[in-house]
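debug: dumping io for the single-chain case to check the tokenizer round-trip. Nothing else runs in this session.
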Amino acid sequence: MSADSTQATQERILDTISSRVSALAMGLWLVAIAIGVAGVVTSLDAEPQRMWQAIWVNFLYWTAIAQAGVIFGAILVAAGGHWGKPFRRVAEATGAFLPVSLLVFAAMYYGAETMFPWMGPVEGHVNLDWLTHDGVFLRNGVLLAVLYLASFYFMQVSLRPDARLIATRQTGWRNKVLTGLSRGWRGDEEEAARSRRIMRWLGPALIGLWVLVFSFMPFDITMSLMPGFYSVIWGPLYFMAGLLCLLALVALLAHRYKERHNLEDVWGKWEFHDLGKLMFAFTIFWAYIWFSQFLPIWYGNLGRETIFFEQRTVNGFGPLLWAQMALVFLIPFALLLWRRPKMSSRYLSMVAVVTLVGFWLERYNLVVPSTWHGDGPPFGWTEVAITVGFLGLFGLCYSVYASLTPKLPIHESLVSGERSVGP
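debug: decoded output
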């Protein structure tokens, strides 16, 4: 590529920097956060169990997506996946929610007595040496903090080769952040090479840490909601669902950015086809893991473990379980089965919405039937308001970080628009 064409490509990528959060987006996110706060305040005394259930559900949902955004970049590095480099900035911006996730997890300490049955008299075998109030939150708080720090270091290393150039298009605090990030600059080529060297070992290490932490954490705060129930694949069910939701969110956002910035030659039909194939593959894989949990319980008639399915098929929760499986597997499977529709970003973004809604319902079914003892599934102002509040928090974090960077990596962007052939 000639110097002129390289310069033109860089300028085009730099033009995708928004440099601010639009007044409309900022207003929507702040209103959503205010609704969430109102939901917490009005439910704190009147219906504390429903409030904490909603917080549990949304913490699990948004945290899994936010962490998966950083892991997406780590997987590309570890696997040499050049096809996905144009999507990396879109995915990594979800990591901006991780500090909020840690704060929410700390606040959940005060809802433990409402949520955890093992904190009171309970029948069945429960390892109370492992499951203690302070132990659960201290152990998982430290693990999450370490994972999040490693994730932010990965995001920093990923962004640094572009930081100095991006800073020329920014003002105010954004310029200061990027200038600080590029302190001790060694030159464009050397910085890009150094970034790749670090990410080559950091990426696999981060993936391993993600698997470890996101196995322990759901064991402690969701599986323990059902004393006596054990599942060795509980962790993979959780973190693989987060990765699938991340792919869906990337498809949705990339479609929007492609239309706004005329990036059809970067995010062309073959790039969306690859993204659609991954969504299809992980949809099948998640359903396979879920069925692998169900099958031994069914054919082995394991009485102690049938509690998971019993709780989700009685008291009005049965239709929600069927709706969950339709939204997370049956409908996406049918819609992604064909090759040509996956090449349309508009079509893929519609499938993405189905997947994202389905997995929010899956998180709801993961938590609420285990702790709710009233008549019928609880769903009303409390659940809607708190969910909208979390959406506002996630959207605000994402929008602020996305305004800091271009939508594509400058030193690793691939302008293709042709069939992907791998690394």
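debug: round-trip ok. The chain is about 70% helix and 0% strand.
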